[in-house]
TrEMBL record:
Its main location: membrane. It holds the Pfam family LRRNT_2. SMART domains: LRR_SD22, LRR_TYP. It is a single-pass type I membrane protein. This is Receptor-like protein EIX2. It is found in: Cell membrane. The gene is LOC132805098.
Length: 928
């Protein structure tokens, strides 16, 4: 709300200036006019014609025409005291501040065409049409006809095209606001040089990337006090001159250049006028190098300083201690390192301190507790350590937001501690709570809207009072602890559009009701039991993320998916659910991720799922599903993961699967699938790419940010982030892939009834790291082209009827860590001089006609040659010769074998590393 207050104050000042001799404070602020003022008829008619061209479904201009006098009774219209001319037209809707957090398209309250009759208002000097949309192609040119304008606000109006140079005709402008028009651009800013009285300029979101002279033009504005060019595509190609005119009579106090591509070359330009700046925001830019203390140490009037999301290095300098007036300090998301060396007692006015996502280390100074005006303290995502006690928060009675998360803090708060503050937001994720008991002091906090104490080492029964802690709660995260207890009816305990994460704990008991307007619900990895029928009682249409996996739930899936049509993530894997998958599940057409694996579902895959065109992950493995693989699966163009493992699917592999160009994992193993392997599988182009075109993590696309408003009107948010994970059988073991799932490319068709040859086309899938065709009835030879699969880490062709020799090209697969060719009809010598000899003999057994190392069976010609007898007369000389030759042979042979052994060891070390990596991922996912 600080931004809204700033705009309100600005309007009061500007309107007062514009009004001159009358007490005009705008239509929204209550205006007193002389009763003698009457509306000029020509201007009254112009306003009515203007209204006729607008769509006003909300009736915001219903007062227009109700009386003859437009000056005192018509909304948004004001006239001068002297002659009665309309001088002010303010049609902006009420409560627009909430829209200013983004430049997303808005719903316009008023829209239509601007009637040229409005040009009759020749004396108008104040025009606010913000949040109104006009579809005139020449709208901006029409606006430039109001040459007397001193205040012009066209922000968030959906304007497009190029700002005309005729804007230079508005030479009387004091304030120009074009924010939020993201389809608007300015190829140059020369017209600004014709606005000498301009004090306030805001063009946030307007494309200024082609205006390479922006800095020089701004330098020519002698009266400028407020400059906001956020997210305009600005850059600095060459070192700029002084940013503001040396002879300027006014000094810049407000500067917002955030979210551009500005480099540290901007700092010398700020130096001359640093002492006049009150507000400076250079966040989300490309600032690099040392912290700009030489510039900022003179900015002693600063109240707001934001340099977050840059690449600044080194610790906050002690020069910041000179900022006696500083209220907001945001240095988050830089590369700042070292200890926090500020003596906070010298910043008595500080209200917000944000140092998150840096490389700060050491302890948090106790002096932070002396900041009696502090409202926000965020030092999250650093390398800070030490013990935090109530002494760190001793005098922070106004604190509303506290974030210690993702550090190595130990929290030691007395169980009897009663804080002097009432928090809105508390984040303690990954902090260790000493004693492992549930924090008793939380019951004193009655205003909490955001609470995250995940991964805090709590091993305790959740107290009953906790569920009544705050009826303002919008987000709750207790995940990754060992909290025991049951969850009561929470249907009336949250407000807004809440998110709840209780995953990875020891909660038990049946599932009760949850808020009907919930957006995210994660109860996975607990011991909840009972049915999931509670989903139907919720009747929620806002739920987009539901994870009930790894519990003890039983019964059938409910048939109420119409009410869950916003669902994006559905995970009910690893439970005891049974029955058929209801056909109505296809009504959740926004779903991206579907996990129903390791249950006892029967029947066929519902045909209705074919309507879920956004599906990226389908995992229904380890159930008892029957029927053939439906052809609609091949029409799901975004599908990346398809796991149908360990079911009773029959029939052949549908050729439609070849249309899944984005598919990275195909697991059809352990079914009753017959027929030949389709040759067209090489059309799965994602498997043919050695580097994934996607992110390493599947699931970030499901992250959603929910904005809410605290009791004081300030904005807050929580992020619902889903990182997918899938159990894959690679290297003869089950590995859970999560954060690297997007990099995995594997095909498993094992343990079916497949027949025919191994299609040579499969060797075009050069990105595969795992290929398993074992346990089928495949015949023919191993394709010589198999050497093209250079990324293969695991290859299993065992338990088939393959014949012929092992192709020598197999030795070119240098990344191969697991190999199994056993139980076939392979023959001939195992290629020698390669890493193949490093595998266990079990990889080649049950091939009667196969020979060579590592098998004990020798190949013809491998018998040891007879050594002829040596004449006694030359025995000593011959012994010396044999001894010398033997030593040479041993040295030479050992060199070759050493290289071979090194190669084998490297590959086995690599394989062991991958195994250990997978095991660590498994442990992290399962919380073991």
């Amino acid at each position: 709300m600080g931004g809204c207050f700033h705009e309100l104050l600005l309007k009061l000042v500007l309107v007062s200036i514009i009004a001159g001799t009358v007490s005009v404070l705008g239509s929204s602020f209550g205006t007193n006019y002389s009763n003698n003022i009457r509306c000029i008829q020509k201007e009254r008619q112009a306003l009515l014609k203007f209204k006729q061209g607008l769509e006003d479904e909300g009736g915001s201009l219903s007062s227009w025409g109700s009386t003859e006098d437009c000056c005192t009774s018509w909304k948004g219209v004001r006239c001068s005291n002297s002659r009665g001319h309309v001088v002010m037209l303010d049609l902006h809707p009420e409560e627009t501040c909430s829209y200013e957090f983004s430049f997303e398209p808005q719903t316009y309250i008023l829209s239509g065409r601007m009637n040229t009759a409005l040009l009759e208002l020749k004396y108008m000097n104040y025009l606010d049409l913000s949040f109104l949309y006009f579809n005139n192609t020449n709208f901006l040119e029409l606006i430039t006809s109001f040459s007397n304008l001193r205040y012009l606000n066209l922000s968030y109006g959906g304007l497009s095209g190029t700002i005309p140079n005729q804007f230079g005709n508005l030479s009387n402008l004091i304030s120009l606001d074009l924010r939020g028009n993201t389809d608007l651009e300015a190829k140059n800013l020369d017209w600004l040089s014709h606005l000498p009285s301009l004090r306030h300029l805001a063009m946030d979101g307007v494309n200024l990337s082609k205006a390479v002279d922006w800095l020089q033009v701004v330098n020519m504005l002698p009266s400028l006090q407020h400059l906001s060019l956020r997210e305009c595509g600005l850059s600095i190609v060459t070192p700029p001159p002084t940013l503001f005119n040396i002879n300027s009579s006014a000094s810049l106090s407000f500067l917002d250049l955030s979210d551009n591509q500005i480099t540290s070359m901007i700092f010398p330009s700020l130096l001359r006028h640093a002492n006049s700046l009150v507000f400076l925001d250079l966040s989300f830019n490309d600032l690099r190098g040392s912290f700009p203390h030489h510039t900022l140490e003179k900015a002693i009037s600063l109240v707001h300083l934001d340099l977050s999301y840059n690449h600044l290095e080194r610790i906050v300098p002690k020069s910041l201690e000179n900022f006696q007036s500083l209220q907001v300090l945001n240095l988050s998301s830089n590369n700042l390192s070292g200890e926090v060396l500020i003596d906070f007692a010298k910043l008595p006015s500080l209200k917000e301190l944000r140092l998150s996502n840096n490389h700060l280390n050491g302890n948090l100074p106790l002096s932070v507790g002396k900041l009696s005006k502090l409202e926000v303290l965020d030092v999250s995502s650093n390398s800070l350590d030490g013990t935090i006690t109530q002494a760190h928060l001793l005098n922070c009675s106004l604190l509303k937001e506290l974030d210690f998360s993702y550090n190595s803090f130990s929290l030691n708060f007395s169980s009897a501690w009663v804080p002097t503050f009432q928090l809105d937001t508390l984040r303690l994720s990954s902090c260790r709570i000493l004693g492992s008991a549930f924090p008793q002091w939380l019951q004193t906090q009655k205003n909490l809207s955001y609470l995250d104490i995940s991964n805090a080492g709590i091993s305790d029964i959740i107290p009953e009072w906790f569920w009544d802690i705050s009826y303002k709660l919008r987000y709750l995260n207790l995940s990754y602890n060992q909290i025991k207890g049951t969850v009561p009816d929470l249907s009336s305990r949250f407000v807004g559009f809440p998110g709840i994460d209780l995953s990875h704990n020891k909660f038990s008991g049946p599932l009760s009701a949850f808020p009907s307007n919930i957006t995210t619900l994660n109860l996975s990895n607990n011991s909840f039991h009972g049915s999931v029928s509670f989903l139907c009682t919720m009747s929620t249409v806002t739920l987009n993320y539901l994870d009930l996996s790894n519990n003890l739930l039983f019964g059938s899936l409910p048939d109420c998916w119409t009410a869950l049509d916003k669902l994006v993530v559905l995970n009910m894997a690893n439970n005891n659910l049974s029955g058929t998958i209801p056909n109505s599940i296809g009504l959740a057409q926004r779903i991206n991720t579907l996990h129903l694996g390791n249950n006892s579902f029967v029947g066929e895959l519902p045909y209705s799922l074919g309507e879920c065109k956004r599906l990226e992950v389908i995992d229904v493995g380890e159930n008892r599903l029957t029927g053939s693989i439906p052809a609609w699966v091949g029409e799901t163009e975004y599908l990346r993961i398809l796991v149908l493992r360990s079911n009773l699917f029959s029939g052949s592999i549908p050729p439609e699967l070849c249309h899944l160009t984005s598919l990275q994992v195909l697991d059809l193993s352990h079914n009753k699938i017959s027929g030949a392997i389709p040759q067209c599988l090489n059309n799965i182009t994602s498997m043919a790419e050695q580097h994934s075109p996607f992110d390493a993590t599947i699931g970030y696309s499901y992250a959603s940010t929910y904005i809410y408003y605290n009791a004081d009107g300030s904005a807050g948010y929580y992020v619902s982030e889903y990182i997918d994970n899938v159990l894959l059988i690679l290297k003869k073991m089950g590995l859970v892939y999560s954060k690297n799932l997007g990099l995995v490319k594997a095909m498993d068709l094992s343990s079916n009834n497949l027949t025919g040859y191994i299609p040579v086309e499969l060797t075009n899938l050069t990105g595969l790291i795992g290929l398993n065709l074992s346990g089928n009835w495949l015949t023919g030879t191993i394709p010589q082209e198999i050497s093209k699969l250079k990324q293969l880490d695991s290859l299993d062709l065992s338990r088939n009827q393959l014949s012929g020799g092992i192709p020598s090209s197999l030795s070119h697969l240098t990344h191969l860590g697991t190999l199994d060719l056993s139980d076939n009809n392979l023959s001939g010598r195992i290629p020698t001089g390669t890493q193949l000899q490093g595998f266990n003999k079990s990889a080649f057994e049950e091939n009667p006609d196969l020979c060579g190392v590592p098998l004990p069976k020798k190949c013809p010609g491998d018998e040891e040659p007879d050594i002829p007898e040596v004449a006694n007369t030359n025995i000593e000389h011959s012994w010396f010769c044999y001894q010398s030759a033997g030593i040479g042979f041993i040295l030479s042979f050992s060199g070759v074998c050493g290289l071979l052994l090194l190669d084998v060891c490297w590959n086995h070390s690599y394989a062991q590393y991958i195994d250990e990596l997978g095991a660590r991922i498994h442990v992290r996912i399962t919380g073991g």
